[in-house]
Amino acid sequence: MAESVNHQEVHDLLVEVARKAGDMIATAQPHINTSSSKKNSADLVTETDKAVEKFVIGALRERYPDYDFLGEETYVPGKQLTDKPTFICDPIDGTTNFIHAFPNVCISLALCVMRMPVVGVIYNPYTTHMYTAIKNQGSFLTMPVRTDSPTSPAPIAPRKIRLPRKQHPEPLTGLQNALCAVEWGSDRSGHNFEVKHRTFTKLAGAIEEGGKMVHSLRSMGSAALNLCAVAAGQVDLYWEGGCWAWDVAAGWLILTEAGGIMVDGNPGGWTPAVDCRRYLAIRAAPSGQKELVEEFWSAIEGRMEYSS
Ligand code: LIP
């Protein structure tokens, strides 16, 4: 079954579906008081999340009725990712941003085979940035750019850029020179919250205080777009525990096809599973990736614990 998947055809369908879903997202009018919460008041969902996922399921099942589907809004607790070709969908990644009209929002779509992503598509309908990757074929950002010049003004046109955006990324030289994407997530008490905020303090703190004095921490609210930012080389790393396979599956492939690496968000795991719920992503670099992973792991204040 795995060898019969036409990755290009799946890619083209996911791009088409992402654009149509993006129109649904961009034209919606979410309000804080019409959103509902799941686990707590920071774990939000809207009718648009559900409507988009319903549209995606219909569009994918029509073309690939035999493939499995794993989506955030239809997920049944305990359902495990299998070796079968499986579409993984986060209809709106960055739902909190969506509700607050903060434009760091996307739909994230992936096809996984043998539990690893082989096609990934992430689309931000507000910026119209489309991130795509096919296994062993590289990853790309298609974005609108002005094509005019002093002599020939012209409209905006889409341009497809290979990732990372710098053709020759700089070496990684340790946490003290790193811009780090992190997320609070929706757990705001308990063990995992304690590990996170102690680690954030360690990362940001001054060297003389025992800290790592990173350049800064960025919490942008979307795991998928965080992985795209690492793939593009715009942040050096992204660390999170508690998000899910649908948050990271597409971004994982976009990251690795751009030369980045994904390791476990807990120390010591060099080959994590897509649904392990603990992630540390490192940008492409000619040197320093392994050293940065080990330095970051040494800075984590404990081990995060999540059930899949
Ligand atoms: C979000 C993730 C983010 C995490 C949030 C939330 P959602 O996904 O992208 O990384 O910190 O808690 O899970 O819920 O917006 O699809």
Low-confidence stretches: none
Discrete helix count: 7
**Helix percent band:** 25-40%
Which term fits the overall shape? globular
* CA distance, first residue to last residue: 26 Å
Strand proportion, as a percent range, falls in: 15-25%
Quaternary status:
single chain
- Please provide the ordered H/E string of secondary-structure elements: HEEHEEHEEEEEEHEHEHEEH
The biggest sheet, with number of strands, parallel, antiparallel or mixed sense and barrel status, is: 7 strands, mixed
* Biggest sheet: strand arrangement: 3-4-5-6-7-8-9
Hetero compounds: L-MYO-inositol-1-phosphate
Structural class: alpha+beta
The average pLDDT score comes to 95
Gyration radius from CA atoms, angstroms:
19 Å
**How many beta-strand elements?**
14
In short:
The protein is an alpha+beta fold. It has helices at 7-27, 47-63, 95-99, 191-204, 223-232, 245-256, 289-299; strands spanning 36-37, 44-45, 68-71, 86-93, 106-113, 116-124, 129-134, 139-146, 156-162, 179-182, 216-218, 237-241, 261-264, 278-282. It has 7 helices and 14 strands.
What does the model show?
This protein is α+β, with helices and mostly antiparallel strands and 308 residues long. Helices cover 29% and strands 24% of the residues. The protein is built from seven helices and 14 strands. The chain has helices spanning 7-27, 47-63, 95-99, 191-204, 223-232, 245-256, 289-299, and strands at 36-37, 44-45, 68-71, 86-93, 106-113, 116-124, 129-134, 139-146, 156-162, 179-182, 216-218, 237-241, 261-264, 278-282. Strands 3-4-5-6-7-8-9 form a seven-stranded mixed sheet, with helices on both faces. Strands 11-10-12-14-13 form a five-stranded mixed sheet, sandwiched between helices. α1 (7-27) runs antiparallel to α2 (47-63) and α5 runs parallel beside α6. The radius of gyration is 19 Å and the shape is globular. The chain starts with 6 loop residues before the first helix and ends in a 9-residue tail after the last helix. It binds L-MYO-inositol-1-phosphate. L-MYO-inositol-1-phosphate (LIP) binds at residues 72, 90, 93-95, 183, 185-186, 222-223, 240, 243, 247.
